[in-house]
């Protein structure tokens, strides 16, 4: 994020040297710190995703404060750990809005957590960012989704893997919104490319025994496996799959593997050859990303985790919000929303990221990569991919007064029988 970071430093310095900015008709510096709340799992079964996201968020806010803050004010970051519990998510969402009076909240990992808290932020008029890849379909003027959707990533991953390995695809997925809906997108893309989704299985997030499923894959005649498994418990699948020798004969592509740094938790022998598609990999070869990775590792030291889409999007999501605050000249919700939807974007470690105004989703680059020796080798890239799945069902320009999750409409619009 070298260029954007320098521009951020320069424009912030300009703000400090110029006449004080006005917020709500008063001096910006007279209102105390700007309140930024993060609600992300740092314990429980989803902590493999949440910890790097929190680290990246802290880095972004620290950089902004070191540069003088926003509008002459420091940013106060408050981080809550919902411990992978929906009950705690709802509790902390209420605390962030009614108690903390947050100017913005960046929160949620699973779609279940997002849908549990999104209505709270709409009800309290608190600006909300969701920085995680998901199944698409959220249409909410108050909610900005920066993570990738199936039309941006899975639509590239499925045909590439099928062309490489074969047409018969066995699907394994987590048993909640993301896994269930993404599995239907995978089935569509398999069929669209002349393939056969031979079977689909769903697993609760706490399942660790995949022995019976591995035997079914062995006897299914599948050429490949498409995985949309989620969380720490599901890492067991990849270990058990390799232990059975299946990763050598029926290879795996995944819509989720690596965004929890699973590739660092299993051995190279267990993971080599797996193919994934995301909007960010730590291995992107660009000056902006090299600078981002170096600064992150310098801040984190020996404990620095690998960087993935979720971490990069947390960092870039914070900077998108900051750029909108500067453009709006205030932290007030509606002016910031209008700024975000005006074509504003940043040049981040993943490349150019802009908000598409019909959906409040990100236009973003997408990368296909193959795992080798616990690192991803990028093999294909696609610039400025739109959230085409959500664009089929959401038009906030025509009707901005929406706060809904239209995943069923999206599936039907894509011709998926549900």
Please provide a written account of the structure:
- The protein is an alpha/beta fold and 418 residues long.
- It folds into 2 domains: 2-149 and 285-365 and 384-413, Response regulator (Rossmann fold), CATH 3.40.50.2300; 154-254, Rossmann fold (3-Layer(aba) Sandwich), CATH 3.40.50.2300.
- The protein is built from 16 helices and 18 strands.
- Strands 9, 10, 11, 12, 13, 14, 15, 16 and 17 form a 9-stranded mixed beta sheet that branches. A 5-stranded parallel beta sheet has the order 4-3-5-6-8, sandwiched between helices.
- The radius of gyration is 21 Å and the shape is globular.
In short:
With 418 residues, the chain is an alpha/beta fold.
CATH-level-4 superfamily name of the largest domain? Response regulator
- The CATH topology of the largest domain: Rossmann fold
Estimated share of beta-strand residues: 15-25%
Low-confidence region ranges: 1-30
> Fraction of residues in helices?
40-55%
- Largest pleated sheet: 9 strands, mixed
CATH architecture annotation name of the largest domain: 3-Layer(aba) Sandwich
What is the number of helices? 16
Radius of gyration: 21 Å
* Extended strand count: 18
Distance between the termini: 42 Å
């Amino acid at each position: 994020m070298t260029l954007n970071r320098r521009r951020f430093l320069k424009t912030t310095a300009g703000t400090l040297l110029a006449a004080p900015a006005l917020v709500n008709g008063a001096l910006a510096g007279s209102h105390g710190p700007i309140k930024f709340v993060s609600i992300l799992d740092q314990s429980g079964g989803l902590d493999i995703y949440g910890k790097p996201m929190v680290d990246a968020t802290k880095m972004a806010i620290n950089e902004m404060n070191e540069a003088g803050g926003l509008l002459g004010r420091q940013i106060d970051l408050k981080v809550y750990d919902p411990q992978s519990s929906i009950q705690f998510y709802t509790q902390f969402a209420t605390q962030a809005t009614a108690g903390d009076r947050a100017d913005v909240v960046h929160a949620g990992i699973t779609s279940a957590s997002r849908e549990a808290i999104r209505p709270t932020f709409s009800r309290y008029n608190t600006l909300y960012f969701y920085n995680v890849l998901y199944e698409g379909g959220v249409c909410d003027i108050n909610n900005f989704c920066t993570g990738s959707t199936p039309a941006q990533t899975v639509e590239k991953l499925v045909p590439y893997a099928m062309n490489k390995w074969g047409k018969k695809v066995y699907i394994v997925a987590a048993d909640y919104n993301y896994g269930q809906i993404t599995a239907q997108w995978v089935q569509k893309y398999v069929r669209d490319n002349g393939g056969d989704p031979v079977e689909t299985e769903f697993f609760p997030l706490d399942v660790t025994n995949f022995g019976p499923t591995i035997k079914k894959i062995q006897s299914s005649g599948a050429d490949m496996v498409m995985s949309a498994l989620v969380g720490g418990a599901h890492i067991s699948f990849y270990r058990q799959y390799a232990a059975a020798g299946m990763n050598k004969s029926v290879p795996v592509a995944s819509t989720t593997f690596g965004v929890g740094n699973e590739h660092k938790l299993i051995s190279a022998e267990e993971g080599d050859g797996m193919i994934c598609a995301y909007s960010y990999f730590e291995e992107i070869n660009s000056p902006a990303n090299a600078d981002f990775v170096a600064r992150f590792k310098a801040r984190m030291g020996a404990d620095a985790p690998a960087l993935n889409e979720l971490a990069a999007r947390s960092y870039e999501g914070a900077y998108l919000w900051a750029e909108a605050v500067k453009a709006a000249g205030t932290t007030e919700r509606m002016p910031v929303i209008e700024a975000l939807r005006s074509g504003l974007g940043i040049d981040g470690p993943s490349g150019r990221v802009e908000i598409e105004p019909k959906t409040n989703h990100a236009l973003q680059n997408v990368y296909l990569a193959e795992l080798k020796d616990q690192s991803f080798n990028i093999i294909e890239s696609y610039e400025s991919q739109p959230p085409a799945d959500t664009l089929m069902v959401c038009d906030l320009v025509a009707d901005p007064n929406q706060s809904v999750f239209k995943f069923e409409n999206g599936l039907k619009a894509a011709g998926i029988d549900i």
